[in-house]
Amino acid sequence: MRQERIDRGELAGTSTRETAQLRGARQRIAELESELAIVKRASALFDEAKVVRPKELFDIVETLALEGHGTKRVCRLLRIARSGLVAWRSRCRCEISSEPVALCRYSGRSRGHGALP
């Protein structure tokens, strides 16, 4: 009843329309702050490496995901195809690692075995 009177302009206060606009603006601000935090953290990770090869971007995405940032948003901000990230995740880590070992330390199988079970 009171809100209806505010919406009609009979009482002072915030109308339903203004409240909805404020809620939308607050959500957008929260999204932008989250994206800024991702970009700042990614920038710090880039600074740690002198040269970042394209496949090393997946490691950065994984680090940011472990820190609680959404993978979809991180991929969008870093301009990485999510399909490439999914393919990278499905590969065994021994294929990514540069360590010269006879057996994969991640799965215990010899190299060239493909994805983890």
**Class by helix and strand content?**
mainly alpha
CA-CA gap between termini = 62 Å
- Let me know the average pLDDT: 78
Largest sheet: none
> SSE string, helix = H, strand = E?
HHHHHH
Give the strand tally. Answer: 0
Count of alpha/pi helices:
6
**Which range best describes the helical content: under 10%, 10-25%, 25-40%, 40-55%, 55-70% or over 70%?**
55-70%
Beta-strand percentage range: under 5%
Taking pLDDT < 50 over at least 5 consecutive residues as the criterion, the unreliable ranges are: 100-106, 108-117
Radius of gyration, whole Å = 24 Å
Principal-axes geometry comes out as: elongated
Written overview of the protein:
There is one protein chain. The chain is mostly helical and 117 residues long. The protein has a domain at 2-80. Helix content is 62%, strand content 0%. It has 6 helices and no strands. The chain has helices at residues 2-8, 16-48, 56-66, 71-78, 82-90, 93-96. Helix 2 crosses helix 4 (71-78). The longest helix has 33 residues, at 16-48. The radius of gyration is 24 Å and the shape is elongated. The protein starts with a helix and ends in a 21-residue tail after the last helix. The model is unreliable at 100-106 and 108-117 (pLDDT under 50).
